[in-house]
Amino acid sequence: MQVSPTSPLWNTVNIVAYKLTAHALVVSWENIGQSPLDLDSLNSFQVAITDGSDPLAPDGNNVSFCYREVQWVVGNQFGLDPSPATVGTNWGNGVDFMQVGRFGFTDSVWNGQMTWSGSGWLNGRHVAFNAGPLPVPPFYSTKECDTVEVNVGDTGHYVITAHRGGPAPPMSAYSTCSSLTNYTVANQTVDGSHVLTSTFIPVEGEEGLHTMNFQAATGIGAPSTTQRYINVLGTSGVAERKAGRGLLIFPNPAQGDAWIAWNGETAQEIQLTDAQGRTVQRMRPVGTDLHISTAGLPSGLYAVRVLAGGQVAVGRLLVAAP
């Protein structure tokens, strides 16, 4: 794999742990202070550089940044002038770059990709992008999981930010979810980026998994797309969530076979539903576990529903490309 110089937080940190797999290099900074003696303000974050096939960087991207907490951003313990910590990558040609932001404060206010912002905005955030093609395509960041659950009749929200690579002309961004009746999007522009806030209120008959489609484009190169999911629960949604806590799906992501286990009674049926809400497999297990085959299934996210003892346990299975 080959990527450009990449920084999840360009600052004065140098203690790392790493793991190398067949498809990715993962480097983690865990509880790093401004100095070895500083335990009051700590940073924990991770970068994964992949060959484009690892779900750590979804949507065919090859780099992901993941932040648990960023409590400090300037390195002046050695007498240096405070300077912002830059998040991004640089192609080294003096023209092309990808920048999430420059973080010189510790509040949670993000002022855009090129302006000083607060490092609290990074906390809990995941960024994925492609550090290969030129021109630099738009990319996304969010604090949300890939799937959000909402009951019929309740209001749900999903927030994701579309960023433009640099340099690039103005960017447009939008989202759709054609399978939900009540789905709207508020689009806030921040220094050329777009903060998309989706609001949805599912109605009876819309139970199941729905796909939110996001697209961002600058008019140069192909648009960047990503998908997130809404799992609509019925009126017994609370019972479904509680039942789901006892549901185990392993390995996840899966290639080939997956093992499903649950607490409680023998299930009457297990259903596997794709992102379009179509049931692709129905199984009648014996006991409280089951091996299933994902052979022949397209890669993507599937909902697993275990019907047992009058309750429904809901889980997610990510089928990875072979």
Overview of this protein structure:
The chain contains 1 helix and 24 strands. It has 322 residues and is mostly beta strands. It has a 9-stranded antiparallel beta sheet, with no helix packed on it. The protein has a 4-stranded mixed beta sheet with strand order 1-6-7-8, with no helix packed on it.
Count of alpha/pi helices? 1
What oligomeric state is this?
single chain
Count of extended strands: 24
Order of helices and strands: EEEEEEEEEEEEEEEEEHEEEEEEE
What value does the Rg take, in angstroms? 21 Å
Helix content: under 10%
C-alpha geometry: globular
In the residues, how many domains can be counted? 3
Mean pLDDT across residues:
82
Largest sheet: 9 strands, antiparallel
Low-confidence stretches: 76-81, 236-245
Query: What is the rounded distance between the termini?
Result: 18 Å
- Spatial order of strands in the largest sheet: 2-3-4-5-9-10-12-15-14
Topology:
Blueprint: E1 6-10, E2 17-20, E3 24-32, E4 43-50, E5 63-70, E6 85-90, E7 97-105, E8 116-118, E9 126-129, E10 139-142, E11 147-151, E12 156-163, E13 172-176, E14 183-190, E15 193-200, E16 208-217, E17 224-233, H1 237-244, E18 247-250, E19 257-262, E20 269-273, E21 279-283, E22 289-293, E23 300-308, E24 311-319
What's the short story on this structure?
By secondary structure, the protein is mainly β. The chain has one helix at about 235-245; strands spanning about 5-10, 15-20, 25-30, 45-50, 65-70, 85-90, 95-105, 115-120, 125-130, 140, 145-150, 155-165, 170-175, 185-190, 195-200, 210-215, 225-235, 245-250, 255-260, 270-275, 280-285, 290-295, 300-310, 310-320. A hairpin with a 6-residue loop joins strand 16 and strand 17.
